[in-house]
């Protein structure tokens, strides 16, 4: 048992070491990725199910890694946040998303909005509002076409400063949505304090949509949103059953694999044409 214990400790410390090396390597690769422009965006359509039209697209970052292949945010966002690299990466994401949305507007899809995910580290930067303003101007995109997705945890920390930043963003004309709504273990009081436009209902709430208590939760969130004058979009819609039940519970905007996976911008064009905005 003693011997096993020793080995166990050794294996553990060795794997800790490997983990530290892996992270260091990833960090230096992230630096290179920024210089070499290896970050790309895929876009997932958001659909108004009453009209079947695409009303917006969520930008989701990918890392087109030179030898590891296409990497997903789960593989690198945490390290990017811990090293602060999320700030320049997030700026790059905002620039690409705004430019792409402007291109779609110029191609005739003039009502489209683009949604961009924010890390709370970005929102904590003093110059963040200025950065967004400059990016919008450089792209020539109307601020109303940009939606910034924040999570409930952002709302819980640094409340005063975050509140000021959000108000200044909204003053630009930008829209704010709460991502993964209902999963953050936070009180609901921020909903009346923060300048928010939309709630994104997390997909964990719709996995058993035929279930009575689950549909009661959706109905309640929709009622809450309507009373607060907020829009609602449901994320992670995968099945025809969800597609049929959700409108009966008051949901009209949806996003999920049933409609489309996140796809490269050029693949969006046929989707946009089909949806004829
Ligand atoms: P999220 O914002 O909640 O994005 C939704 C995630 O669920 C995406 O994963 C998307 O591909 C996936 N998804 C969409 N529809 C479905 C569906 O019907 N079923 C299932 N099972 N999954 C679906 P992805 O692209 O891997 O992104 C993961 C997370 O990484 C995002 O979660 C977001 O929190 C973060 N992220 C993505 N892009 C950025 C970014 O540019 N900046 C920051 N800070 N975070 C980002
Ligand atoms: Ca999101
Ligand atoms: Ca989400
Ligand atoms: Ca999420």
Automatic annotation (TrEMBL):
Protein origin, superkingdom: Bacteria
Domain EAL: 23-276
Protein name: EAL domain-containing protein
Gene source species: Paenibacillus aestuarii
Region of the whole protein represented: 419 to 695 of 695
